[in-house]
Structure formats: structure tokens, C-alpha cells
Amino acid sequence: INNNFLDVQNGTLDLTGSYQTHTGNFNVAIGSQLNFNNGLANFADGTSFTGGGVTQFNAGTWNFNGDISADNLDFAGGTTTVAAGTTLTLTGTLGKISGGVLQGTGDVTIASGTFGFTGGSLGVLGFTAVPGVSFEVANGATLAVSGSASKTVTARSVTNNGSITVAGTGNVTFQFGASLVNSAGSLIDLQSDADL
């Protein structure tokens, strides 16, 4: 349980465990990695993920229950849920949804940098769209869709106030009321024949 400061300065640290609640800062240095594996953990208000390295969420259940800021998160497996009334703020250039599920009725914002979407699923809880719940690409930020894997957006609005690039061969399926809103002055750059 991290209620203060955990600093990964070199190499890879694997954490496994269930029914843990964290409120502290996880810092991962450039070239290092922090893995959450095969467990169940809650991340409460005030939790933060910082540094130039990657924090990866693998098979397990991960609940974001407060306003959380995060550099370089990789949702590689398992299910991560953003609670209602909270905001997950994403920054950095190494973060992505690469195979896991990022869901919930809280807001998710790419505030700066580049966030990838190379596999997996983005959605809400269930299959009914929730008005006002968004996945926002902020002005100056980029959502980079790429790779050969199929991707899904389920019952959630994706609002582009920055830029979205689409490359690779894997299609993106919007289903159960999901939508893509491209705001005035924003850019969607289609670099391949993948369906969006």
C-alpha cells in the first residue's frame, strides 16, 4: 500500500496483490517500468503517477476512485474503471490503451503530450451512453490511433479539441451510442485505410 511516495529509479518493479488502497505518488524514472499484475487495487483521490518511465496495468481490476493525474500509463490488460464524478488526467508521451479495458462514468482527459490507442477498449460501465461523460483530447494534445489490432469505443463520447492521428490497419468500432466529436479548429489526420 502506497500512501506516500514510491520511486522506481532503475529496472522493472512488479506489484501483485488484492484489496489495496493507494493515495500516494508513484514515480517511475525514464527507462524504468512499474507493473501492476493480477490483482485488485483502488487508487483514491490524490494518487498520482509521475516520471518519464511507464506504469503498466496488466490482468486485474483497477479502480480509480478520485481525481488522478498520470504520466505514461499503459492499459495493457485487465479492467480499469474511472469512478463517476472524477477525472483521470493523462499526460506524457508513452501512455496508451494497448490491450486492456478503460471504462467507467468518470471523465478522461488527455491534457498534454501524446496518448496511444493500439488495442483494447474504451467505454462506460455497461452498454448505455451516459450524457456528459467524455474522453477528451485537449487543445495541444494528441490521440494516436495505430497498430493492427481492432479497437472498440463503447457508449462513450470522444471529443477532439486537439488532434487525432489514425495509422495502421486495425479498425476502430464505435458502438452502443459512442460518438466522435471533432471541435472547430481541431484535426483528424487519416494516415491509413483503417476505419474510424
Structural commentary:
With 196 residues, the protein is mostly beta strands. Helices cover 0% and strands 58% of the residues. The chain has no helices and 22 strands. A nine-stranded parallel beta sheet has the order 1-3-5-8-11-13-15-18-21, with no helix packed on it. A six-stranded parallel β-barrel has the order 4-6-9-12-10-7. The model has no long low-confidence stretch (mean pLDDT 93).
Question: Short description, anyone?
Answer:
The protein has no helices and 22 strands. With 196 residues, it is mainly β.
Question: What's the gyration radius in Å?
Answer: 16 Å
| Main sheet: strands, sense, barrel | 9 strands, parallel
Spell out the helices and strands N to C. EEEEEEEEEEEEEEEEEEEEEE
Question: Whole-Å distance between the termini?
Answer: 40 Å
- Quick check: average pLDDT? 93
The general outline is globular
Spans where pLDDT lies below 50 across 5 or more residues: none
Number of strands: 22
The fraction of residues in strands falls at: over 45%
Number of helical segments with 4 or more residues: 0
Helical fraction: under 10%
Structural class by secondary-structure content: mainly beta
**Widest β-sheet, arrangement of strands:** 1-3-5-8-11-13-15-18-21
Topology:
Layout: E1 5-8, E2 12-22, E3 25-28, E4 33-43, E5 48-50, E6 54-57, E7 60-64, E8 68-71, E9 73-75, E10 79-82, E11 87-91, E12 96-104, E13 107-110, E14 114-123, E15 134-137, E16 142-145, E17 151-154, E18 157-160, E19 163-166, E20 172-175, E21 179-182, E22 187-190
Parallel strand pairs: 1-3, 2-4, 3-5, 4-6, 4-7, 5-8, 6-9, 7-10, 8-11, 9-12, 10-12, 11-13, 12-14, 13-15, 14-16, 14-17, 15-18, 16-19, 17-20, 18-21, 19-22
